[in-house]
Amino acid sequence: MTENVARQFADKGTAAAEEAKKGMEQVYETASKGAVDFNLRLIDMAQANTKAAFDFARQLTSAKSPSEFFELLTSHVRKQRETLSEQVQQITTLTQKAAIDAAQPFQASGAKIFNQRS
């Protein structure tokens, strides 16, 4: 009987370790996808910001007076502030989604491990 109990305990431990390994693999895979999505979004934002800066520079070359210059400057700053606010919100949402998505496989495997021990 003692050998059976030891064997069952070892089998449950092996199954729990395998389940934990699978969970960690899923966490890594999900986190990697989240990192790729995050980096691609950052590249998109950098491209948009660079384009806006060059467009602004082109507009400044056509300014005929100091008042027109300051009007262009004020408009550009307002647009960039709005853009930055939107970009921060997008990054925040993307980061939260990546964290939640990465945690789900870990939570699921943890639940399976604890259910197996019962």
Radius of gyration based on Cα positions: 27 Å
User: What is the 3D shape?
Assistant: rod-shaped
Query: How would you spell out the order of helices and strands?
Result: HH
Strand count, sense and barrel status of the largest sheet are: none
What percent of the residues sit in helical stretches (DSSP H or I)? over 70%
**Cα separation of the termini:** 19 Å
Contiguous runs where pLDDT drops below 50 for at least 5 residues: none
**How many helical elements?**
2
Mean pLDDT: 86
Strand fraction equals under 5%
Protein structure class: mainly alpha
Main attributes of the structure:
single chain, 118 residues, mainly alpha, 2 helices
Structure report:
By secondary structure, the chain is an all-alpha fold. It has a domain at 37-118. The protein contains two helices and no strands. Helix 1 (2-61) packs antiparallel against helix 2 (66-117). The longest helix is centred in the N-terminal third of the chain and has 60 residues, at 2-61. The mean pLDDT is 86.
List the helices and strands and how they pair.
Blueprint: H1 2-61, H2 66-117
Helix pairs in contact: 1-2
